[in-house]
Design a protein that fits this description.
The protein is α/β, with parallel strands linked by helices and 233 residues long. α1 packs across α5.
Length: 233
């Protein structure tokens, strides 16, 4: 986590300030990429992937390319906000419902007064409104764009419009706004310590069971194919 925050701080404070997409990858996203070429391209084209998911950390160790620790997207969001107070970064929030996005903005303003929340927009817009949304983000000129539209949508949307958006750091944050706003709760510390946040989410939202089927598939693939797995160049 420390290395990631230092690296991203360098990216944000560099003179280049080119569009930069970070993906916080979990096993469900990895399996989706393996099954869908378009999604694989989104992940390969991202400037940085970090292991958001205990399964990815476990798999990396199994394939003899270990990573030091999990870099959870929710925690990374807060670490970036902490760092942003020193640099007075501007942050744009995109996604979720109008109620959640405005509540999230208010909570973040109170928690990190040194960071400027320079714009908010809920995630309920259609493809023909993308131009309008992009224009609003460009006008706000944020240093960081946080997008909460679900893994199936947010990463491809960022990748599709990355160059047009021109934001120095863009990251999908899934359900983080729901937790920050108070709409939902993050897994208790015990589940986090046991690395079983996925189980807590499943217990609270049984409808997620279909998506969770990707987890045993992921584990079996790692065990079966670990000798043939390589890190993409």
């Amino acid at each position: 986590m420390d290395d990631t925050v230092k690296y991203l701080t360098h990216i944000l404070e560099s003179e280049e300030r080119r569009p930069f997409q970070i993906i916080t990858a979990n096993p469900i996203m990895v399996m989706k990429a393996l099954e869908e070429p378009d999604y694989m391209k989104v992940m390969r084209d991202a400037e940085l992937l970090v292991p958001d998911g205990t399964g990815v950390v476990w798999a990396a160790a199994r394939t003899e390319t270990p990573v030091q620790e999990r870099v959870a997207g929710f925690d990374l969001l807060h670490e970036l906000m902490k760092a942003g107070e020193d640099y007075h970064w501007k942050v744009y929030l995109l996604g979720s419902t109008p109620e959640v996005i405005h509540a999230t903005a208010e909570k973040l303003r109170l928690q990190y007064p040194g960071v400027q929340i320079c714009g908010v927009r809920d995630g309920y817009f259609k493809e023909d409104q993308d131009v309008e949304v992009i224009a609003d983000i460009r006008k706000a000129a944020p240093d960081i764009l946080l997008v909460a539209r679900g893994a199936d949508t947010q990463e491809p949307w960022i990748a599709r419009y990355k160059e047009q958006l021109g934001v120095p750091l863009m990251m999908g944050v899934g359900g983080s706004f729901d937790v920050i706003s108070g709409k939902s709760k993050r897994a208790p510390k015990l589940f986090q310590k046991l690395r079983a946040e996925w189980l807590y989410r499943l217990l609270r939202e049984p409808a997620r069971a279909g998506r969770m089927l990707a987890l045993p598939k992921f584990a079996l693939k790692v065990l079966r194919d670990k000798e043939n797995m390589t890190k993409p160049s």
